[in-house]
Amino acid sequence: MAWRIEWSKEALRDLSRLEHKDAKRLVKKIESIIEDPLAHFERLSRYDDYKIRAGDFRAICLLLFQTQTILVEKAGHHKYIYKNFSKK
Prior knowledge:
alpha+beta, 5-stranded mixed β-sheet, 32% strand, 5 strands, YaeB-like fold
């Protein structure tokens, strides 16, 4: 069974700020791994979140195993995405 993808408001805002080709590449990467996301995601140190790479860009996601949902929380360039990432 394939996983569902949900986008947070912050992730959608982040995507809208990227160049179109970069945003499209990141979305395409996430959509291409919905059959087996665990083979492609890397877990973040000290967090329950995972990251996925698409060139110089990253998406930080939460994998909800009960509902098989990938919740995309944040997206952006690798230089900046981790600086403002903190769990509340």
